[in-house]
Design goal:
single chain; about 120 residues; mainly alpha; 3 helices; about 60% helix; elongated; transmembrane; membrane; Lipoprotein LprD
C-alpha cells in the first residue's frame, strides 16, 4: 500500500461538479413533481438523481482505493479455466436411430429418389 497521497484537483472538481449537477437535477425534478403539471415520473426522477450523485462519489472512492492498492497482475503462463456448471450446456445433436421402421422406409425412399434423379439425363 502506497503511503504517498496524490493531489487530484481536476478529478475532485469533476466529482464535485457531477454530484452537484445530479443533486440540482433532483431538486428540479422535485419542484416539477410539486407543480400542478407534475407526475409520479417526476417523483421517481427526483429520487433517482441523488442515487446518481452517490454513485459519482462512490466511483471516486473506489478509484482512489484501486490506485493505492491495485490487484496483483496475472502471470502470462497461468491457465484460467471456466468452472464446470457455470455456463449452460451446449445442445447435442440427436443421433438418427435405425430402430424406427417408418424412418428407415422414408430414408430408403429418399435414397431411391436421389438415385433416380442422378440417372435421368438433363437437357
Amino acid at each position: 500500500m502506497s503511503t504517498t497521497r496524490r493531489s487530484r484537483p481536476a478529478l475532485i472538481l469533476l466529482v464535485i461538479v457531477g454530484a452537484t449537477g445530479c443533486l440540482a437535477l433532483a431538486w428540479w425534478q422535485w419542484t416539477r413533481f410539486e407543480s400542478s403539471s407534475g407526475s409520479f415520473q417526476n417523483l421517481g426522477y427526483a429520487l433517482q438523481w441523488p442515487l446518481f450523485a452517490g454513485f459519482v462519489v462512490y466511483a471516486y472512492y473506489k478509484f482512489v482505493r484501486y490506485e493505492e492498492a491495485p490487484p496483483e497482475p496475472r502471470r502470462p503462463d497461468e491457465v484460467t479455466e471456466i468452472p464446470d456448471g457455470l455456463l449452460p450446456e451446449r445442445p447435442r445433436a440427436t443421433t438418427a436411430s435405425d430402430a424406427d421402421p417408418a424412418l428407415r422406409e422414408y430414408n430408403a425412399y429418399l435414397a431411391e429418389l436421389a438415385k433416380n434423379d442422378k440417372e435421368q439425363p438433363t437437357t
